[in-house]
Automatic annotation (TrEMBL):
Top-rank taxon: Bacteria
Pfam families assigned to the protein according to its UniProt record, in alphabetical order: ABC2_membrane_4
Name listed for the protein in its UniProt record: ABC transporter permease
Transmembrane region(s): 15-36, 56-78, 99-129, 141-160, 167-194
Annotated keywords: Membrane, Transmembrane, Transmembrane helix
Species this chain originates from: Bianquea renquensis
């Protein structure tokens, strides 16, 4: 019910066009890169997915995370505009269910964006490399891993937007977090666990243990962030 309600709300915003346009833009990155500089990658060792993601994933991820931040700000801006959130509190609706509906919607749109990008990687492989046996199962592993690592970023972005009534404040915090994540060394495991930095990691088929550490950390961060959201709602009720 809350998800369908959120879908009706976003029709009046640029949420859906932003994710659609951003997904197409991110998917165009590997295509344009290969069209311009294909000779740099064709002779590299390794499978085509690894080569393409190593070359393009940083830019693609930055666009993905910026989309999540902007989308979260838009979703909560509609709630705080004209005191809509105050009116919602008078209805028999829990704030946590509102948050859950927005989270499900943002997660679905993030999955949609990743699906477009996976299609772009498949196209590049077909056009410049060779699609071998087991290609699509490998593609699902890589992008499934990326999807899971994006979830803590989605929840934290929504939590920041829920806490800040001014959309520009939450947007500014989100952008600062994104650019901070880009400056963190990806080789440092502890620093790379920052929710905005985790999506920049690429699944390493040669080091499954390291990838499993990231998966476990993402699940743990999701649990902590969900508990933080419940605690925040209760604390705000006591202070109001």
């Amino acid at each position: 019910m809350s998800v369908s309600l959120e879908c009706k709300k976003v029709k009046r915003t640029g949420f859906l066009p932003a994710f659609l346009g951003g997904g197409i833009l991110a998917a165009a990155v590997p295509v344009i890169n290969m069209a311009v500089r294909s000779e740099m990658y064709l002779d590299l060792p390794g499978n085509s997915i690894q080569i393409l993601l190593d070359a393009n994933w940083q830019m693609m991820t930055m666009l993905n995370v910026l989309l999540v931040v902007a989308g979260a700000c838009l979703l909560y801006h509609t709630e705080y505009a004209d005191n809509a959130m105050q009116k919602m509190k008078s209805l028999p609706i829990r704030e946590s269910s509102i948050f859950l509906g927005k989270a499900v919607l943002t997660i679905c749109m993030s999955l949609f964006v990743l699906a477009i990008e996976a299609g772009a990687v498949a196209f590049c492989t077909y056009h410049w490399f060779e699609i071998g046996n087991g290609f699509f199962s490998e593609l699902c592993k890589y992008f499934g891993f990326s999807f899971l690592l994006m979830l803590p970023c989605v929840i934290l972005s929504l939590l920041i937007s829920e806490a800040c009534k001014n959309m520009w404040v939450s947007l500014g915090i989100g952008v600062v977090c994104v650019f901070t994540a880009t400056m963190l060394p990806t080789t440092n495991f502890a620093l790379s666990l920052f929710p905005f930095a985790m999506p920049f990691q690429v699944f390493a088929s040669t080091d499954v243990t390291q990838s499993m550490h990231y998966i476990d950390s993402a699940i743990a961060e999701l649990a902590v962030l969900c508990l933080a959201q419940l605690a925040f709602v209760k604390a705000r009720r006591l202070l109001e």
